[in-house]
Specification:
Layout lengths: L5 E2 L9 E3 L23 H4 L5 H8 L4 E3 L2 H7 L7 E3 L1 H6 L6 E7 L10 H13 L4 E6 L3 H13 L2 E7 H6 L1 H9 L3 E5 L5 H9 L7 H13 L4 E3 L6 H7 L1 H12 L6 E5 L4 H7 L3 H5 L5 E7 L4 H4 L1 E6 L8 E6 L21 H8 L4 E5 L1 H15 L8 H17 L3 E7 L7 H8 L10 H8 L8
Parallel strand pairs: 5-15, 6-7, 6-9, 7-8, 10-11, 10-15, 11-14
Antiparallel strand pairs: 1-4, 2-3, 4-5, 12-13
Helix pairs in contact: 2-11, 3-5, 5-6, 6-8, 9-10, 11-13, 12-13, 17-18
């Protein structure tokens, strides 16, 4: 099967447990802190926001956590997802036979992305605890769509605060959420104190994930029937996504291959963690494998941010987390990769970058879309704007190997399709899309507001 195009596992090969990378890291992750006392928070501090089973997973150091049977049954609607060998892209790049590109395709889920991998278990645990309503935020709409889908399956009402610029750019994402029964509003909104404060200061605010998180957290914290669900960043979210990498390892074995380079795009870190974390033990045991996180040059938390304690939201309602951050006051540009417009990076991804386990690169918007067009015209799949960043770096790595005469196997995560993102493609094709790279002075201004934490 070494020269096949698709590598497909059977339903009975879906992973039966999630992999927790915390168990294998040489340094334990720094704890989240209470913003008032600056002391580590306990489960009781998170109980107003999350079901207890989720809190236990968030703080767990157990290597494998069993996937509940009801969640596995729902996973079967789209899992296992296929692994592809990019034969036609390789041919277009005129790569030698010893340079191979593979991609794991998560766009086959009902919501069209990797996000249901965590939306389903989060809704399941909420249902188990008697929760009847979930509040959340969404950037590009993939997470909001996924949680709306999961809410429909479990009979849970879902309220989605969608970053206003994406709400405007992607009306059909809102329609999809509403089809599954969710309520979706543009953030900042007039429905929360956090939203009203932002609008009072800037009536034309395009919003940000940090603002939308503030609204969703406030919503959940002020209603007894509601819990908060998050689509990225936190440990339990990254944990649930590791079904991707576990499947990819089995599928790469079917192809008689093992990656020299694993690549994923990063905004909050869930898609990147999903493909890469299961490969980390081999790297820590000495295997020569590079793991690359790719972010937009317009929101460069890993490549230009600092590793420090910061709020996860704009209004300062969340615990302090140690992460690579541009500052919670950072307002990202209105780039089309809406899922990658977050001021911070997942604490676990940040820790591994700080320790040199992973590396990071930043890609400009037009370069990413140029790679996406080449991919779509060869492989046929229209990528979501977010994974176009990973495609760009995968192509770059392949061409470097070709030029150097090196043998190289490259794996990247194609975390979703771009069928709701044709406005972005139209802007690129028509020449209206512009690159934006934040001046260091603006980043410095946002970082100046970091909370003071003695370490």
């Amino acid at each position: 099967m070494a020269d096949s195009t698709r590598y497909v596992l059977q339903e009975n090969q879906i992973p039966t447990s999630w992999y927790n990378v915390v168990a294998d890291l040489p340094t334990p992750p720094p704890p989240p802190l209470n913003p008032g006392t600056k002391m580590p928070i306990g489960p009781e501090d998170l109980a107003p926001l999350f079901p207890m089973a989720i809190i236990q997973q968030e703080v767990s150091a157990q290597r494998h956590i069993d996937i509940p049977g009801e969640v596995l049954d729902i996973y079967k609607l789209w899992r296992p997802t296929p692994l592809y060998r990019a034969h036609r892209l390789e041919a277009a790049l005129d790569l030698p036979k010893n340079v191979r590109i593979f991609y794991k395709y998560e766009g086959t889920s009902p919501a069209g992305s990797h996000k249901p991998n965590t939306a389903v278990p989060q809704a399941y645990y909420a249902k188990q605890e008697g929760v009847t309503r979930l509040a959340t935020e969404t950037g590009a709409g993939q997470w909001g769509s996924a949680l709306s889908f999961a809410g429909a399956l479990f009979g849970i009402d879902v309220k989605v605060y969608m970053v206003k610029i994406s709400f405007s750019q992607k009306p059909y994402r809102r329609a999809l959420m509403e089809t599954w029964g969710a309520q979706c509003v543009a953030s900042p909104s007039n429905e929360t104190n956090a939203g009203r404060a932002i609008l009072a200061a800037d009536p034309d605010s395009n919003g940000s994930l940090g603002i939308a998180i503030s609204e969703a957290v406030e919503d959940a914290a002020t209603r007894e029937d509601t819990k908060y669900a998050l689509g990225s960043v936190l440990n339990h979210v990254l944990l649930h996504q590791t079904v991707i990498g576990q499947e990819a390892i089995a599928q790469m074995a079917m192809a008689d291959a093992y990656p020299d380079v694993v690549i994923g795009c990063t905004g909050g870190g869930s898609n990147f963690a999903g493909i890469s974390f299961p490969f980390v033990p081999e790297k820590l045991n000495g295997k020569n494998i590079r793991i690359i996180a790719v972010e937009p040059a317009a929101c460069p938390s890993l490549t230009k941010g600092v590793y420090a304690y910061d709020f996860g939201d704009t209004a300062g309602m969340t615990p302090l987390m140690k992460m690579h951050t541009l500052g919670s006051a950072f307002m990202p540009a209105s780039i089309h990769a809406g899922g990658l417009r977050y001021h911070g990076m997942a604490p676990l991804v940040s820790l591994m970058h700080d320790q040199g386990i992973i590396e990071a690169q930043a890609v400009k918007q037009r370069d990413a879309f140029a790679a996406a067009i080449q991919f779509a015209r060869t492989e046929g799949i229209l990528p979501a704007p977010e994974p176009t960043h990973a495609i760009k770096v995968a192509i770059d790595e392949a061409l470097k190997a070709k030029e150097a005469g090196e043998e190289k196997t490259i794996l990247f995560n194609l975390c979703g399709h771009g069928n709701f993102d044709l406005v972005a493609y139209d802007r690129y094709i028509s020449g209206q899309m512009e690159d934006y790279e934040h001046p260091q002075s603006e980043i410095a201004m946002a970082l100046a507001g970091l909370p003071s934490v003695a370490e």
